[in-house]
Amino acid sequence: MSPGKLLRSIAVTLALALCAGGLTPLSAQHPSEFTNRDKTEIFIQHLVRTMKLDPTRYRAMVLEYEIGSALRDFSPELAVDLDTADFIHNSLRELYAGYDKACKAFENGADTEALALIKKLDHEALGDRPNPYLRAYGLLLQTEIDFRGKRYRKVIENCKLLTREARALLVTDWRVCELTALSFNRLEESLLEFAQYALLLTDYGNLPAPLKQKAEARLGELKGEHGKPLQTVAGWMNRVEKLISREVTSEAPTQKQERGIVMALDKLIELQEAVERQTCPNCGKGG
């Protein structure tokens, strides 16, 4: 099929789907199963249903995506960067001046200005309901600023919220997982860092190649120390038991170690669930 016919075919298919009330429903049950294209098409559906855009402006945005998709299908070698391009992020910058200004402030190192702009984003959202995409990308930008400001505990807290509530909205959902791993590294919590990098490699199929190589290398460095993570946690539990038996129940070291154990077990459970999704995709779905 020629590039022109392929473009027209995609345009017609998309138009028919939108006129029918939405794109074809996706069968994915977990955010990890959504491809970048899935997320982008759902976002386009969101634009159609919730935002009153100028028709010319909307058609230009969708055409940009259609051309990119057609180029990817027709000639993958000419579209190497398309699978990692964030159409949603770029569209939000075009649609919301406040978000674009916040991004520019962050890029210029003006973090205080960027944070002030992020706090105003909900007021900029069109319609009666806040835009979930704007809120998710705004929180991710705030998390990037917190990481640069070395507020690592806040980064981990925000990343947990993004993973739980907004992963399907973010094309760069892998960045949330990476920021968590980097924060554990800065806090010198190597077991949690180990589990987070393992989760990154297991549960995120859209990783950029350089990040995948970096994660594999770091995981290899940590494997000698934490290759058997449950044994490490068991050792922590034994130490806590001994401290409690001596009636040492203060914040440091007992309560701090107890919180570390809970976090480690939660992270290992999350990793195990990701492994099971990869090894048995239909488990838990009635398959």
Largest sheet, strands/sense/barrel? none
What percent of residues are in strands?
under 5%
Computed over alpha carbons, the radius of gyration is 22 Å
Number of strands: 0
Estimate the helix proportion, in percent.
over 70%
Give the SSE string.
HHHHHHHHHHHHHH
Count of separate DSSP helical elements? 14
- How widely separated are the two ends? 36 Å
CATH architecture descriptor text of the largest domain = Alpha Horseshoe
Query: What does the average pLDDT come to?
Result: 73
Parts with pLDDT < 50 across at least 5 consecutive residues: 1-28, 79-84
Task: Characterise this structure.
This protein is mostly helical and 287 residues long. The protein has helices spanning 3-19, 36-50, 55-74, 87-95, 97-107, 111-119, 121-124, 132-148, 152-165, 173-186, 190-203, 209-226, 229-245, 251-279. The longest helix is centred in the last third of the chain and has 29 residues, at 251-279. 27% of the residues are buried.
